[in-house]
Design a protein that fits this description.
Elements (H helix, E strand, L loop, with lengths): L14 E6 L3 E7 L5 E8 L6 H11 L8 E6 L10 E2 L2 H8 L9 H14 L5 E5 L9 H4 L5 H7 L8 H14 L9 E7 L3 E7 L2 E5 L20 H10 L4 H10 L2 H6 L4 H9 L3 H25 L4 E5 H6 L1 H9 L10 H9 L6 E2 L8 E4 L4 H13 L2
Parallel strand pairs: 1-4, 4-6, 7-10, 10-12
Antiparallel strand pairs: 1-2, 2-3, 5-6, 7-8, 8-9, 11-12
Helix pairs in contact: 1-3, 6-15, 10-11, 11-13, 13-14
Length: 385
């Protein structure tokens, strides 16, 4: 299929954002003010027949809400895709070729791309990559201390993820601070959800992040372990005779909050810790210890801190997690106002909120995760030339 470019007025274009996840395909139609004017959540892409569901959803919106362009969220861009890319057959093949780097996510992205291109063949389609925002990482931050032949042969490096969320949250923080376009603006964005990662962003450019070659590196997450000693993994393989599949299953799906506290739900962890559960208190303490330490490392990469941003499901909804995180970061100038922090939790989804305490030297914000806005922005950049 040849790409459709045509003559699209990016300033007036309705952009359809397609986010293919493990359990659903989310469709969001955004207008030029970045308001969602239509939406649909469909079952996860399966082999065959999915284009019909997408076609029915889009047709139901009517001619007045016909998309002028489509943006697709793709988890991995490898070293080839360092920014959004107009979708051609060659680009789709390039995305599919990266399946080994993201075997759970890449096939779903490709299937969704093919289905939506079939439904909307006459409009431009753009791939927007979660790894692309971190393509600006300095080599000191992106390079593993591994044999050069490994790094060259298999492109083994730190890629980083959640880039669309970090890009939006950092840009929004600059707007809220009145420092849009300021090359010296230093912000740490905390995307805390089932998956969790941090980014150190200097003047709109990612200079460090916590996830690496895979989304398993970094923070304690809902079911992922985050950082562990690689020697421990080797020991488990050698001494406990665990297979690669068994190790992967345990590190990805049986660790993190679930492994520590018996549940992947932060609300249950908090409630259990408050009620005296030693297991859930341990889970909370480990989670916070890793989070605070990682934030401090991001600040070190920036050489200081102007703003701290919480986003993602836990970041937006959990006032206690935000408060306890900030309590350990006073030495960085971080402090949150208790009343504002509690109110921000109650106002989730309504507005981005500042929760900075009066004596803090760094400002703290709660920002709603809006990867859809970031994708629409990237799409408009591509189609406007």
């Amino acid at each position: 299929m040849a790409e459709a470019v045509g003559t699209v007025d990016a300033g007036s274009a309705l952009v359809l954002v397609v986010n293919a996840g493990s359990s659903s395909v989310k469709l969001r139609l955004l207008d030029t003010a970045d308001e969602v004017v239509e939406s649909a959540d469909l079952p996860a892409v399966r082999d065959g027949g999915h284009a019909a569901l997408i076609a029915a959803a889009v047709a139901g919106w009517g001619e007045a809400h016909a998309p002028a362009a489509v943006g697709h969220r793709v988890v991995h861009g490898g070293t080839r895709f360092a920014g959004p890319a107009l979708l051609t057959d060659e680009v789709v093949n390039g995305i599919e070729a990266l399946t080994a780097l993201a075997p759970l996510h890449q096939p779903k992205s490709v299937a969704a791309i093919e289905a939506v291109r079939e439904v909307l063949p006459a409009v431009p389609h753009v791939a927007c990559f979660d790894t692309a925002f971190h393509a600006t990482l300095p080599v000191a931050a992106s390079t593993y201390a591994l044999p050069v032949e490994w790094r060259e042969r298999w492109a083994v490096r730190r890629y980083g993820f959640h880039g669309l969320s970090h890009a939006y949250a950092s840009r929004r923080a600059a707007e809220l601070c009145g420092r849009t376009g300021d090359a010296s603006f230093r912000v740490v964005t905390c995307h805390l959800g089932a998956g969790a990662s941090l980014a150190a962003v200097l003047g709109g450019r990612s200079v460090d992040t916590t996830m690496g070659f895979t989304p398993l590196e970094g923070l304690v997450m809902a079911t992922r372990s985050g950082d562990v000693d690689p020697g421990l993994v080797l020991w488990l393989a050698r001494e406990a005779h665990l297979t690669p599949d068994e190790l992967s299953e345990s590190l990805e799906h049986r660790s993190g909050l679930l492994g520590l506290g018996g549940t992947k739900d932060m609300r249950e962890i908090l409630a259990g810790a408050a009620a005296g559960s030693a297991r859930k208190r341990l889970a909370l303490d480990v989670y916070l210890h890793r989070l605070r330490a990682a934030i401090a490392s991001m600040v070190a990469s920036l050489g200081g801190l102007d703003a701290l941003v919480f986003t993602g499901g836990v970041g937006e909804r959990s006032a206690p997690v935000r408060a306890m995180t900030a309590d350990g970061l006073a030495f960085l100038g971080v402090a949150v106002d208790a009343a504002a922090n509690d109110a921000a939790g109650e106002a989730h989804g309504e507005a981005d909120t500042e929760i900075t305490a009066g004596d803090a030297t760094a400002r703290t914000f709660v920002v709603a995760a809006r990867e859809d806005i970031e994708i629409a922005r990237e799409v408009r950049e591509i189609i406007s030339g």
